[in-house]
Write a structure and sequence with these properties.
With 245 residues, the chain is of the alpha+beta class. The chain has helices at 66-74, 94-104, 127-135, 155-171, 195-206, 226-239; strands at 10-16, 21-25, 27-32, 35-40, 48-52. Strands 2-1-5 form a three-stranded antiparallel sheet, with no helix packed on it. Helix 4 (155-171) packs across helix 5 (195-206). The longest helix is centred in the middle third of the chain and has 17 residues, at 155-171. The protein is globular.
């Protein structure tokens, strides 16, 4: 397209005829000879729109995650708690993270007449997102058939979901680099990481998607904040080459 777009605020939308609206689809933007070239990551033929859609919030000025929050908000991957407030320090539930990640990967909601999980009502705002995330293998339920949508997601749980998202993106055709986590995480509190999350933590740490604190601790059981979720998703998309750096 003629003219240059800022890759941080430029966004691709795909028309969803079932909803009668546009939704985000991953895309990369490159400027050459005064023109912006958009590479849209989609496997279907449809109507696409390229737009500049800057978005910010009053309560993230000076925040360490400001750039990532704005980048994902401009793509409608994350939303504020109101039109002007984001609440970056608020924790994230499993349902909320499922919604963020399915939007980030451009997945459509899975509208069904019955829920995959017994504690996810089909009328819940997150039902379609949870169904799409489960179908894509991003998040799993528990052995008792529940999803626990209102449970706050921990850092090690988020690491597992991020690793699953990388596998999904790779299977879908994204050019995802290999992240070799090695035999150790490098975190001083590695022993505190549950065995079911250890390999995922190694992978996403090696990819630079999740980091430890300044004391080299991972803090696997700490509850993830909205700012952390935005940052993790942005880094995940960038590592999978689905978002400009």
């Amino acid at each position: 397209m003629n003219g240059e777009l800022d890759a941080h605020t430029a966004v691709a939308f795909i028309y969803d005829p079932s909803a009668g609206s546009f939704r985000y689809v991953p895309a990369l933007f490159q400027t050459k000879d005064g023109k912006t070239i958009a590479t849209i990551m989609s496997t279907s033929n449809s109507v696409y729109v390229i737009a500049s859609n800057p978005k910010s919030f009053q309560n993230i000025s000076g925040h360490w995650a400001k750039a990532n929050i704005e980048r994902l908000a401009s793509r409608q991957i994350i939303t504020g708690v109101s039109g002007s407030e984001f609440a970056p320090g608020r924790t994230v539930t499993r349902a909320e993270f499922a919604a963020m990640l399915t939007r980030a990967l451009g997945l459509t909601g899975e509208s069904t007449s019955s829920s995959v999980f017994k504690d996810v009502p089909v009328t819940a705002w997150y039902a379609d997102y949870v169904a799409a995330a489960a179908k894509a293998g991003l998040l799993k339920g528990y052995s008792d058939g529940t999803f626990r949508p209102d449970a706050t997601i921990t850092r090690e749980q988020m690491a597992v979901v991020a690793a699953n998202a990388l596998e999904f993106a790779k299977a879908a055709g994204a050019d995802v680099p290999q992240a070799d986590g090695g035999s150790k995480t490098g975190f001083k509190d590695e022993a505190a990481i549950h065995s079911w999350a250890l390999e995922a933590v190694k992978q996403v740490a090696a990819a630079g998607i999740l980091e430890g604190n300044n004391k080299s601790d991972f803090l696997p059981l700490d509850l993830a904040s909205r700012a952390e979720a935005a940052t993790i998703i942005a880094r995940l998309l960038q590592f999978a080459q689905l978002l400009n750096k």
